[in-house]
């Protein structure tokens, strides 16, 4: 039996994205939690816990994106056309956050608050952009043949905004649990106190999202169905959940 390369590549991409969410999630979560900690010493401790690994964690995102381009160029073209604005915002947030991370260590006392704010805003922008992109992907995109036919702001919906806010809570949960493992004393107690409401928020968001999507999902082809489009087919809706018209989604 031959090797099914599309399935193998799909697993590689899925693994890369999963590792990015887990590894860079707690990294971004520390930036999300930074405004909730006032002590300069505690803030230094929070940032120092990820100093050796933060830039390496983002390599998983490069793996997922490069693999998608190499293995599924049509899907890559559709996704980037549909999500151009949130993906650019995500990259801008990650770049600004990375710059703030490095300059924060070299800044004097007078300028450190500025870089703290830059680190926080970069983390928030990157996380919300990732969540909005996920929500837009779940909702689906308008596709005619191999081309994206939707508008520049079709990604902006109430559901995509909800997933953006929910991802903030999810990354904050990863960040707080990471700090519980890596710190002690007052900072650890502060993270334990924050973890309880954050965990409840994440669970509530998951429950609402699952119930809402289940009630709105129509009959759809089996998961993992092929991406069947051609220039001769009428418009369809490229969607993670289902189909509209004669051509399927991923």
Give Rg in angstroms. 20 Å
Count of domains: 1
Low-confidence stretches: 218-250
Q: Average pLDDT across residues?
A: 83
Element-by-element helix/strand order: HHHHHHHEEHHE
Percentage beta strand: under 5%
Helix percent reads 55-70%
Q: Within the largest sheet, what's the order of strands?
A: 2-1-3
Structural class: mainly alpha
Helical element count? Answer: 9
Total E-strand runs: 3
Based on Cα principal axes, name the global outline.
globular
Q: Biggest β-sheet: count, sense, barrel?
A: 3 strands, antiparallel
Q: What is the terminal separation in angstroms?
A: 24 Å
Multimeric state of these chains? single chain
What does the model show?
A hairpin with a 2-residue loop joins strand 1 (141-144) and strand 2. The protein contains 9 helices and 3 strands. The two termini are 24 Å apart. Strands 2-1-3 form a 3-stranded antiparallel sheet. It has one domain. Helix 4 packs across helix 5, helix 6 packs antiparallel against helix 7 (112-139) and helix 7 (112-139) crosses helix 8. It has 250 residues and is mainly alpha-helical. Helix content is 70%, strand content 4%. It has helices spanning 5-33, 40-50, 54-57, 59-71, 73-82, 84-106, 112-139, 158-182, 186-216, and strands at 141-144, 147-148, 236-238.
Descriptors:
single chain; three-stranded antiparallel sheet; disordered C terminus; 250 residues
Topology:
Blueprint: H1 5-33, H2 40-50, H3 54-57, H4 59-71, H5 73-82, H6 84-106, H7 112-139, E1 141-144, E2 147-148, H8 158-182, H9 186-216, E3 236-238
Antiparallel strand pairs: 1-2, 1-3
Helix pairs in contact: 1-4, 1-7, 1-8, 4-5, 6-7, 7-8, 8-9
